[in-house]
Amino acid sequence: MTDTEILKNHEQERQPVECWTRVMGYFRPYSQFNKGKKSEFNERQWFLEEKCNCARTTEKAA
Fold first, then answer.
1. What pLDDT, in 10s, does the model give residues 4-47?
2. 20 to 30 A from 45, CA-CA: which of 5, 13, 39, 60?
3. CA 2 to CA 24: how far, in whole Å?
4. What is the DSSP letter of 45?
5. Cα(first)–Cα(last) distance of the chain, in Å?
6. Would you say 23 and 30 are in contact if contact means Cβ atoms under 8 Å apart?
7. Radius of gyration, CA atoms only, the chain
8. 20, 31 in Cβ contact below 8 A?
9. What ranges make up the beta strands (E) of 1-62?
10. Of 13, 33, 15, which Cα lies nearest the Cα of 23?
């Protein structure tokens, strides 16, 4: 069975997912953002901590 077939067979069991994010010190669902806040959220730059080379930063500070 392909992924598409599996999704079609279980369509009635699926639930919508709500994305929450931290804004101004508290968490809010993305669906409640106004147009400007949604635009700001979509422009955010994401990063992975694993790619941060913290050892170099510590050496420079010493």
1. 898 888 888 888 899 898 877 889 999 999 999 899 889 988 77
2. 60
3. 42
4. P
5. 58
6. no
7. 20
8. no
9. 20-23, 26-29
10. 33
